Structure formats: C-alpha cells, structure tokens
Recover the amino acids of this structure.
C-alpha cells in the first residue's frame, strides 16, 4: 500500500478521497489554486502545494506542475478524482513516465473510451448493444443531415469528446438540424477543443441506467446499477440505486454487458458503463443500449457504496497498489435502497443559472451522509462547478429512503447564496418519482411546479421581522435575560422577499413575547426552550443573518433582505434598461448593436461562466442605446453590458 498520495483535484471529491486514505493510514497531498488557498481540501490534507492561478487552465489542468508537486512531496501515486485531468490519457502517460502510479485505468483504456464513436464501435465488437446512429468520421454538415434523415427523427447530436451534457442537442424536425448542429459543434469546441459530433436515434421515453464496474486490468465485476434518469440540461440531479422496476433478468443482462465492456479494454479501477434504456413498456432485456463509459470514479458513486457496503476509493487504492479484486461477483450483494441529491448554488426559477456567494451559514442534518468540499464561510467562486454538497440517504426500502431524502433536504440550511434545495425537496416528493415512474424527461414535464420559488408564510415572516430587529438571540445562542419594561415598545422594520416589500411593526412585551403586526395578519412570537414559538405553537424554524441578508429555514430556506431606510433603487435598472452580467464570466458573443431595435426576449449577448453558456435577453422592447462590453471581455457580476432606451428617446 502507498505511504502518500497526491490528489490532483479540488472540492468535494478531493475531500472524499482524503477521507478513505486517512482511514487506510495513507498520507495525502493537496494541490490548490489561488482561489482555493483556504479551501476545505487544503485544510484536510497532510501537505498542500500551490499550483497556479484560479482558472483551471492555470492550475488544475497543469499536468506537469502537478506531477512535479507529487515528486517534490514524496507522493508515490496520483488520484485524479473526476473532471480536470481524470480522463486525460496523456496525463496518465506522463504520470507513469515520472515513475509514479496513476490511481485509475491505463492510458490505452481511456483512449479507447474517450471518443464516443470509437467506443461504440468497440462495444459492438464486444457484443454490447449499441443505439442506432452515425459514428463516422465525415463531419460535413450535409452528410450529417443525411445520416439523421436515415436514422429517423427525433435524433440526438452529441459531441464525440467529453460529457456533462455539453455539445448535445435534441433535434425533433429536419428543419432545425443545421442550427442545432452549429450550436452543438460550437459548444463542443469550447468545452473540449474538438467540434466533432455523432448522431444517435433519440429514445422517446429514455431512462439513464448505469452500471458501476471495477477491474484489476484483466477481470472485472459490477456493483449493480444506478438510475440517473432525473436530469436537467442532461445533467444528473438525483440518483438512486438500485433502479426502480429492475428485474433479476434485466440486472443480469445489463451486468454481463457491463463486465464484457470493461474486460474488452482490460479495465483497471473504478468506472461506469452508461446505458440508455427504453422505459416505454417496462424494463426489457432487449431494450437497453450502450451510451458511453466514464473511465473514472463518478459523482454519484456513494449510492453504489451504500447498497453494497463497499468503499470504492479504498478499492481504487488497493488495486492501484498491486492487489487483485477485493471481492468476486458472487460476494457482492444489494442491501436496501439509496438516493443522492446534488446540492448546487444555482437559481432554479431563472433556468438553473449558476450562482456565486459566500456561505454565511451551512448546516446539514445528521441523518444523511454529506460529501462536501465547502464549509461555512467559504465562497462559491465563478471559476469552478458550483456544487455545495452531495446528500446521500440509505434505508431498507425505496419508500423509506425517499422519505428520508425529502426530510433531510427540508433540514438542509444554506445561506449566502441561492440554491436548488427547494427544487430538490419538491422533486423528491413528486408523484411520478415517488411511484418510480421515471425517465429523463420527468423534470422538464413538471418544471413549472418544481421550479417555483418558495414563498414565506406570515409566520415565517414574523420570525424574520423579529430576527431582523435583533431583539432576541439566534436559536444557536442562549437567550439574554429579559428586560422588563412598563410600557411596550414598538419597532418598525421593512423586509424584501421575492421583490415584495414587507412592512412589519414589532411590539416588545415585558413577558419576552413579541407581537408582530404585518397589516392583515398578526402573530405572537417568542424564543424559548431551544426553539421558536409562534402563537403558542412550537415550530422547527432556524434563522441565519449576514449583514442585511437574512434567511429563515422552515421546510424551505426563505431569503429576506433587511431594508436600510437610506437605500434607493437604480430607477434605470429597475425599468429594464440595463442588461447586466448575472455572474462573473467571459463575454462569449455580443449580438446587439447601437441603434438596433429589439423586442423583449431577443438574445443580446452570450456570457460564458461556470463552464456553461448563458444567453442574456432583452427585458423589454426598446432600442440599443449603448453596447458597453465587447466579445472576449472578462466581466464581474453586475457589470452593465448593454443599455436600452425607449424608441421615442432614441428618436429625440
């Protein structure tokens, strides 16, 4: 076994690897960028080495610098985590050339599975079912359009390199093919440096079911399936294991196919064989097809660990150090059911727009496993994926586990940025999902119900008003002695919640109770016996405040802004005249020109941030008065990019 390893990654996965290494007595070396100097993974490691600037290209993608850090620190092996260099065969070659061990597959195995078209051809040879499609080298648009016609619409355009839903477009009619192709190729070029695509038949009611595999370079086993059908923008949201509705026959067929796929490339380490499954008529042994292989540890690996009792990172270290497979297929069994929810800093009502911010408050329930790379006080930066944590639950049955998931999410408290926690809570209770009737289109079909921003009731608003005035201690501190006054004192406070101003009058009674008048509704609030009480009823509310931002956690996280009487809104911005950057990023394209007449909803620019492209739209009809940003410009959050004016103003 290794004495010391370097983790060539950051955030949640770096912390996850360190936890298993620590249990095994293996020392760890972290690498960090300028943006991560005080990050959790740096604090957890035995050693930490600075490797460059905040941009991934200046730090976590610098393979030569990372290898030198491993050599200088005395590490014997490098664990890549996922993302960054984890599926880069040239990096693997360089690691081995330096006399170090790469904790993962051989470079040749990564190369064989790195391009989706070549991987599908290889899988056909291994008698693994493959979705009908065009995987050829001819990238002429007319040829690709003809291939789509031959396959039959709807079709899916997919980048041959990379993953994560980037470079992927669904095309339902021939007339839309060329525009979708151009868009997919552009995104693929930006994300992977390779614009090539393949064309596949689109399965009408698809389920995404993947098999966790593990090999020692010769033989392989599978650790059963995960259902990852709950997706938005082709990004997984909630994963579960085992898959609902799975039959023994289907599991055996998929497991055998996954093992054949892994053994066909002499796979070593942890990997995932992803299948697209036709869910229109139940799970059938002739209704699944190979989609791609991820030659690394997956984000959702904890659900497989939960149902099998296997520590996959421990297996990775053991096999990489020269041991054989820790267990045979017959020794692997399923116990219970597990779910994982990915908690992100993102604005769901605004189309899952990634967010930044400093986590002023962070608290998770003890009932769930939490894999996280951040702590309270840490900042979600624009440089990396905005994941806050993965929340994992495990129970004897699916129904119990799903209830545990919803409860745990309702008791997950995050303040300092917008999150998708409410969305995840609603999704975990969504009727079709509860029944196990899932496919990759479920979220899109119910997005209007799932993306509703939670609105605080009058009781939560009353708690917010009392907290905003600072008249009583927060729930995590003991209450100060009550000051008895002969005459009740009344205080006024204004809060903004979802752009609605709430004017409250709070009267302090000598009994330690607070009478909150919200106009049409009044409540009596107090804090005692370690809990909030509203109208003599104990409630499970928690509060957190940072500056003028206040959050009441009570089933959801309700965000309030405490109004400073001196605050004034920018009238021009409020009128929709300014199109501003919603987050720090790179101006990828500008379509607006001074003097141009635009209509509400017109695309004016594209901002690239958080590894995704975001279209900036006109908030109203008008005329472009000024273009304040140019293509290729790096801008900060809130930066004015385009200014509009009314047509009569422009004419004048």
């Amino acid at each position: 076994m290794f004495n010391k390893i370097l983790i060539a990654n950051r955030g949640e996965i770096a912390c996850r690897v360190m936890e298993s290494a620590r249990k095994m007595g293996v020392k760890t070396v972290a690498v960090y960028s300028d943006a991560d100097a005080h990050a959790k993974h740096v604090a957890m490691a035995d050693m930490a080495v600075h490797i460059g600037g905040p941009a991934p290209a200046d730090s976590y993608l610098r393979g030569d610098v990372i290898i030198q850090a491993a050599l200088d620190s005395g590490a014997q092996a490098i664990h890549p985590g996922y993302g960054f260099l984890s599926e880069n065969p040239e990096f693997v070659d360089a690691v081995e050339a330096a006399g170090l061990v790469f904790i993962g597959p051989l470079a040749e195995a990564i190369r064989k599975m790195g391009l989706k078209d070549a991987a599908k051809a290889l899988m056909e040879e291994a008698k693994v079912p493959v979705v009908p499609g065009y995987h050829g080298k001819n990238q002429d648009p007319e040829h690709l359009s003809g291939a789509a016609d031959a396959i039959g619409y709807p079709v899916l355009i997919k980048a041959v390199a990379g993953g994560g839903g980037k470079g992927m477009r669904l095309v339902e009619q021939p007339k839309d093919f060329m525009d979708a192709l151009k868009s997919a190729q552009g995104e693929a070029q930006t994300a992977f440096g390779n614009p090539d695509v393949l064309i596949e038949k689109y399965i009408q009611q698809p389920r995404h079911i993947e098999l966790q595999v593990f090999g020692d370079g010769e033989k392989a086993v599978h650790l059963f399936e995960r259902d990852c059908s709950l997706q938005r923008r082709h990004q997984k949201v909630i994963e579960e294991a085992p898959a609902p509705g799975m039959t023994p026959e289907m599991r055996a067929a998929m497991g055998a196919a996954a093992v054949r796929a892994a053994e066909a490339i002499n796979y070593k380490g942890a990997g995932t064989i992803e299948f697209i499954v036709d869910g229109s008529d139940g799970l059938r042994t002739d209704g699944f097809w190979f989609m791609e292989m991820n030659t690394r540890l997956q984000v959702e690996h904890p659900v497989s660990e939960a149902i099998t009792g296997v520590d996959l990172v421990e297996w990775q270290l053991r096999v990489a150090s020269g041991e054989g497979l820790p267990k045979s297929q017959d020794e692997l069994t399923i116990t219970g059911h597990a779910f994982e929810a990915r908690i992100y800093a993102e604005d769901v009502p605004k189309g899952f727009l990634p967010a930044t911010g400093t986590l002023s408050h962070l608290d998770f329930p003890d009932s769930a496993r939490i894999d996280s790379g951040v702590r309270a006080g840490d900042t979600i930066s624009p440089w990396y994926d905005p994941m806050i944590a993965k929340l994992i639950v495990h129970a004897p049955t699916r129904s119990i586990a799903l209830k545990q998931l919803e409860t745990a999410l309702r008791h997950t408290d995050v303040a300092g940025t917008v999150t998708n926690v409410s969305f995840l809570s609603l999704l975990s209770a969504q009727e079709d999902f509860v029944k196990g009737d899932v496919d990759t289109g479920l979220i899109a079909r119910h997005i209007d119900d799932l993306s509703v921003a939670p609105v605080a009731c009058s009781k939560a608003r009353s708690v917010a008003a009392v907290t905003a005035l600072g008249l009583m201690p927060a729930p995590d501190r003991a209450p100060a002695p009550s000051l008895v006054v002969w005459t009740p004192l009344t205080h006024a406070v204004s809060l903004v919640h979802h752009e609605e101003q709430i004017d409250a009058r709070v009267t302090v009674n000598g009994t330690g109770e607070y009478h909150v008048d919200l106009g049409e509704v009044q409540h009596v609030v107090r804090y005692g016996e370690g809990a909030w009480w509203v109208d003599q009823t104990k409630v499970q509310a928690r509060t957190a405040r940072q500056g003028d931002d206040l959050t009441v956690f009570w089933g959801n996280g309700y965000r309030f802004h405490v109004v400073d009487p001196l605050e004034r809104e920018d009238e021009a911005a409020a009128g929709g005249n300014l199109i501003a950057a919603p987050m720090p990023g790179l101006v990828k394209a500008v379509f607006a020109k001074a003097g141009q007449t635009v209509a509400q909803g017109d695309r004016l620019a594209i901002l690239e941030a958080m590894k995704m492209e975001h279209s900036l739209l006109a908030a109203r009809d008008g005329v472009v008065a000024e273009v304040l940003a140019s293509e290729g410009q790096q801008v900060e959050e809130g930066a004015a990019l385009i200014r509009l004016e009314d047509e009569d103003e422009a004419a004048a």
Q: What stands out?
A: Confidence is low (pLDDT under 50) at residues 474-485, 568-574.
